[in-house]
Amino acid sequence: MGPVTDGSSAFSDTNWSDCHQVREVRDSQAPCAAPPGPYHRHPMSSSSSISPASTPPSTPASSASNPAPNPASEPASEPAAGDAAKAVIDLRSDTVTRPTPAMRAAMMAAPLGDDVLGDEPTVQALEAKIAALLGKDAALYVPSGTMANQLAIRTVCEPGDEIVAHKDSHIIHYETGAPAALAGCMIAPLDGAGGLFEPAQVHAAIKPKDQHAPLSRMLVLENTHNRGGGTVWPLAQFAACAAAGRERGLHVHVDGARLMNACVASGHAPRDFAQHADSVSICFSKGLGAPVGSALVGSAAFIARARRFRKMFGGAMRQSGLLAAACIHALDHHVARLADDHANAKRLARAVAEIPRLSLEGSPESIPTNMVFFTLDARLGGAQEFCARLARQGVAAIGMGANRVRLVTHLDVSAADIDRAAEAIARATRSN
Ligand SMILES: Cc1ncc(COP(=O)(O)O)c(C=O)c1O
Predict the structure, then answer these.
(1) Considering only Cβ atoms within 10 Å of each terminal Cβ, which end of the chain, N or C, has fewer?
(2) pTM score, whole prediction
């Protein structure tokens, strides 16, 4: 039998509050222990799931033969492709992970069909699994997080409608203006530290029902919040904002590209967040380590309508079970280990906090998930210049703003890589 699993997989038994507790125990070890390897039984995995501790750490040889691509949906201020390709520790994004050997084996073993003709068993298994996990009726497998968000918007909104979202949202900054291009929508941007806001702001942003105003149709909550620093929404605040939107008739959509990071960090189950929303997008190709794919989840009627737009947008695929199998594998084996990425981010943040001329955002212990942001002293030049210098020291990072740099931990970097990266960052501050 192929890798198709039903809802009773190892993953559905994940104890979310245990994830959180174990993470805190691990965090209290300073410095955090290097993961046992190369394969270990993760302390948070169920007894049946043996998961790779991490894929082999990046080596100069492997990076040279398999250069890291530029993540297209990420910010503009990247190191030049040549510099990034030379870098051996790739902290640009958690999208850069390569499928593990076990994931590749699962892909090769997947039973396949034609998803457009409605008989792709592995895609259907993934859709059933993720819908059950989020406590919704149905799900739709799509090529990317951008497509999942844009399908949600197109499914709900008409030209001239307005979406309420944080001003630093991914849908505003990194989706190529798609809400305007594909659905004809405006966005009412909200302020708030870390990509979060308050229910009163939602109420204030909703336009009066008047012929002069756009129709406020949708509220988007991003969790974790990328530009906000990998922030996790406190559940009560999340629920209150969602309730504010729903009370006023808005469709609440969660951009949950990294929802599993939020769950592992907070100890809440995915459905604890999803129950307050009408739709959720979730990515398998970020921290979860699958090569391709996201899902849009919601009511049966919503997903049936979204399916039509997926076809229209060119996102309906055929033997896509090959890819969906990687996503099922990721859900079964790569969720609880996100705690390792979070511990590594704190480890990295502790080192960055000690480097002169760099200002870490927040304190190392307050790093919420797998992202570390710092700003550069003016003497170090701009973010782009610094990232190019850093790439020459063997680390790839991304500039997110004129003098703001982002580092992301993931499945393909170990604690030892983090220590090497920290040394390289310190060298880059001295080499200008
Ligand atoms: C919060 C968030 N939403 C959506 C996306 C889009 O995902 P994709 O790159 O698969 O289109 C990203 C990508 O980084 C993201 O960070």
Answers:
(1) N
(2) 0.84
